[in-house]
Amino acid sequence: METNGTTRTLGRSGIEVSALGFGCWAIGGEWQDAEGHPLGWGRVDDEESVRAIRRALDLGVTFFDTADVYGTGHSERLLGRALGRRRDDVVVATKWGNVFDPDTRTLTGADDSPAYARKALTASLERLGTDHVDLYQLHLGDTDPRRAAELRDVCEEFVREGLVRAYAWSTDDPERAAVFATGEHCAAMQHRANVLQDAPEMIALCEASGLASVNRSPLAMGLLSGRHTGGRVLESGDIRSRPPAWLPGFGDGAGADPRWVARVEALRDVLTADGRTPAQGALAWLWARSPRTVPIPGFRSVAQAEENADALAKGPLSGEQMAAVDSVLGR
Questions:
Q1: Chain-centre distance for alpha carbon 320
Q2: Strands (E), the chain
Q3: Residue 64 host element (H or E)
Q4: Contact (CB, 8 A) for 169 and 138
Q5: 180 within 8 A of 166, measured Cβ to Cβ
Q6: How far apart are CA 45 and CA 47, in angstroms?
Q7: 26: closest CA among 41, 37, 43?
Q8: CA distances (Å), 296 to each of 147, 184, 205, 279, in order?
Q9: Taking residues 255-274, what's their average pLDDT?
């Protein structure tokens, strides 16, 4: 799976990527659900986002993960613009399943029909400015397994047609993930995993099935950056300011939960060993967790891109450091 310290392979696909991917949720800008709750990360500077993507490329990052719904299409368009003629130098992953109104930047529902999968893929290809997606991912984590089997077969059709190189499912449910894992061209599972929220069953499934473990929320929605201290207030357009039930670690309108901040602070000495920043230490923990992991932290600036990319050179935590993390967290 691991070809050297800085690259990994997406499961059985043979597609090589940098061991670190970049998640493009945050750069999609502000968007909301039908009740007006924020689903983005607040305001963004598109020009800074473009500069950050291109800087990441220069620093060896070759894997970019987005979704059609991020910024209701804006993230895909921005990524396509930033990559430009360098499109063939990178691996692009996107997702489908959510339905949205780009005019009002509103999530309006979900559609898990096979017909919508094709419609969504066509629209993503246009926004990205490309003729294929390297990794196409179902974005509805609770899809019925029987429908998921249909969608797996649809993805196989996309592969045969040359529209998709490989596919995956973004889900935290290992039983559901196992349905996709049987597909010939299934290459990965995307799931939440970080030093505070381990995912042993999902990682075990990926290891047993020969799949990549693409890790969303590797920095626990920013908590593991070490910057959420002292009652930092989040802007109203940031999903963390009014967190949904699936997003722990933040209080409604109150910023980071002090209990979670305390856990991060307890880990600081271990994660910052060997000259790492807290964020780099959190990424290093994931690389040491399994040779299958590919964390995809988000970013909104060149500085964040540089910090995350610099973690590649520092590599995974040592066995002793991993044991120290377990001791701190009482595992």
A1: 28
A2: 2-4, 7-9, 16-18, 22-23, 63-65, 91-96, 98-101, 106-110, 133-138, 164-170, 186-192, 212-216, 250-251, 255-256, 293-295
A3: strand 63-65
A4: yes
A5: no
A6: 6
A7: 41
A8: 27, 24, 19, 12
A9: 94
Q: Is the pLDDT of residue 5 over 80?
A: no
Query: Cα–Cα distance between 13 and 269 in angstroms, integer?
Result: 38
CA distance 119 to 44: 28
Distance in angstroms (rounded) separating the CA atoms of residues 221 and 237: 15
What type of residue is 113?
A: S
> How do residues 149-173 score in pLDDT, each as one tens digit?
999 999 999 999 999 999 999 999 9
Give the end-to-end CA distance of the chain in Å, rounded to a whole number. 27
The Cα diameter of the chain in Å comes to 53
Model pTM above 0.85? yes
* Beta strand spans in 128-163 (E): 133-138
* Distance, CA of 310 to CA of 306 (rounded, Å): 6
Nearest to 36 by CA among 249, 241, 299, 255: 241
Give the residue-averaged pLDDT of 10-27. 97
